[in-house]
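User: I'm writing a tutorial on reading structure tokens. Could you give me a worked example: one chain, its sequence, then its tokens, then a sentence or two explaining what the tokens reveal?
Assistant: Sure. Here is the example chain.
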Amino acid sequence: MTYPSVYPTGVTVYNPDKCWNGYTIFQAKEVGALLLDMNGTELNLWKGLHGFPNKLLPGGHVVGHLGLRNPAFGMQDQTDLVQVDWDGNIVWKFDQYEYIEDPGEKAQWMARQHHDYQRQGNPVGYYVPGMDPLVDKGNTLILCHKNLKNTKISEKNLLDDTIIEVTWDGDIVWEWTCSDHFDEYGFDEAAKNVLYRDPNMRTAGGGMGDWMHINSMSVLGPNKWYDAGDERFHPDNIIWDGRETNILAIIDKKTGKVVWKVGPYYDSSPELKKLGWIIGQHHVHMIPRGLPGEGNILVFDNGGWAGYGAPNPGAPIGAKNALRDYSRILEFDPITLKIVWQYTPLEAGWVHPVDSNRFYSPFISGAQRLPNGNTLITEGSGGRVIEVTAEHEIVWEYISPYWGQHMKTNMVYRAYRAPYEWVPQLETPQQVPIVPIDPKTFRVPGAAPLGRKKETVVAGVGAYHGSTALCVAAAEEVEE
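And here are its predicted structure tokens:
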């Protein structure tokens, strides 16, 4: 698919009667954390507060980071994780995970945070009725990096994923390391062979294998499965996904062991085949109690390229060997794996498979279940955020106008919607409907449809059915 070079930005669709109205926060590319109302009015910019991702807390507080490790030595390492108030004052900070001494750089403590974190009080980092994240106390789960060697995986240096829990005062009280559980992920011999030779090597730091690439992490919170006696779904257990391996997993908080898993393969049972291959996914989480679909798994199934295994024409050595050129949002039952709700190119209104790549974000992205049953979808690679109803109607659409200087893209990592009452500094804004522009009739000034002098009508349109014959149609000119 080729994108147009010029298109509208900001809010292009808004139906107040069908939306779950509130504020939307996201990382404006290379600028800072940006808060919008439903009409796209920019209400506050926390300049320099970057987000991996940015999250809004009650009271108009925002979490993000202030620094990035030199990419020559680190891969997506944030130097810190901070919480600021409405005026940008730092009220909490963590950077004490690892003391880093990169050549030619000032030695400093770093958080090495990447992709996700969760503040105590809320399981998923977005609004859940009755589960507000704590603002002035509480522990924080943080997804971090660690460099190590694990010869079960490869002889090469690895960029591993860790999850740590830190207190409000910055003490690390729990840590989990992904590579410690390599034997629990279910890789076949072909995948182990590829991983050993090329664990997704990155050039930073002289070369390191970003073998799993966890990109989301949250706790399950109270749920019906645990209430029914299934210990795998203990409210303290943690769900995460590995972008490079096509794995979704839940780990036991007490033991660290994998107690539930989908992937890395999707052809080993009738249930998995029906679910279909999940590839390069982002933002897996359990829909929290109190929201429609509670207990189901929600994930942005990016498609694109990911996985390790047998070589194929698209993956000559077997790395990134699962391929698909469109995205899906899936909500499915974690017990039966049955799809409960989805948003795919078909639900988006495109002809499958001819136009499937019109709904496609092969990296970043996410999905949030809203209290009215709608879903806020971040189609990240194109800087597009939409709110869709359970019936798949787009009732809000926003296209980011913020383009990067270094990466020439308006991508949005992950957007979140929060209620008006979380920002007491603002009056509840007016909600003015925005009717979608019809692209068939919209013209830039000076190129209006009535500017043409004549039309040419081709006779016989619709009568040609041959695949190789030449159709010669008579034409007549019609003066306006």
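What the tokens reveal: Confidence is low (pLDDT under 50) at residues 461-480. The helical segments are 189-197, 224-227, 270-275.
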